[in-house]
Write a structure and sequence with these properties.
By secondary structure, the protein is an all-alpha fold. The chain has one domain. The chain is built from seven helices and two strands, in the order αβααααααβ. It has a two-stranded antiparallel sheet with strand order 1-2. It is elongated and about 65 Å long.
């Protein structure tokens, strides 16, 4: 007697997977394999992570400002340009200050077609060369440009062009280069971890803990 149906088909697949488990190619990196940490990467990652976690409170501030603006506009019939601009600036600050934390957690977007199939050492070479030859030079140019942008706003005490807009816009413009500086710090930490694996310098401090349930380990 032959049994049919989705339930029996699923049971057959489970049985076959247990009897004939699919083995991962030896050349691919093992699931959960992580780059080793060193003293420098530990310090830099913790610094960036602390700032990124603290910036999460800005999202609560964004929510409160938006609610106040909605209440003022639709209940009191008194719109506030200052509140509207403040919500934009707080949103941008929260985004910029969390970019470095995304790099630390390796949660940023990757266009990864071939790299994930390579062994860990090959992945580390790709990371190291990409950071040193591409990412850091580009981010350095962006930081240089944005520092001049923020400095000009500070020198002229730039304020909003709207009559009732926000003053001291250099405060918010300064967050732009600061966010990219945090990204650069996170990339330097990542590059040092690649160097630890490939060149054994800086020296590894301990073996990385394997993440459970596919989660990334916290710095």
């Amino acid at each position: 007697m032959t049994l049919h149906g989705p339930g029996h088909a699923a049971a057959r697949r489970v049985f076959l997977s247990e009897v004939f488990p699919m083995q991962q190619p030896a050349s691919a990196a093992a699931p959960g394999a992580e780059l080793p940490h060193n003293r420098l990467s530990r310090f830099l990652d913790r610094l960036v992570a602390a700032i990124g976690k603290a910036s999460a409170w800005l999202w609560l501030a964004v929510l409160l400002v938006v609610l106040c603006n909605v209440f003022s506009r639709f209940i009191l019939a008194r719109g506030s340009i200052a509140l509207e601009e403040l919500s934009w600036h707080l949103f941008g600050a929260a985004m910029m200050l969390s970019l470095g934390y995304a790099v630390v957690r390796d949660d940023h977007v990757r266009v990864d077609v071939l790299r994930e199939k390579f062994p860990l050492r090959a992945q580390a070479w790709i990371e190291l060369l990409g950071i040193v030859l591409l990412a850091l030079p580009v981010i350095g140019l962006m930081i240089d440009s944005l520092l001049a942008y923020a400095h000009t706003a500070f020198v002229y005490l730039e304020h909003s062009q709207a009559p009732s807009g926000l003053p001291y816009r250099f405060v918010f413009k300064s967050v732009l280069p600061l966010g990219l500086i945090l990204v650069a710090i996170a990339l330097i930490a990542r590059a040092s971890r690649c160097s630890t694996l490939l060149l054994h310098f800086p020296r590894a401090v301990d073996a990385p803990a394997e993440p459970s349930n596919g989660a990334h380990p916290h710095p």
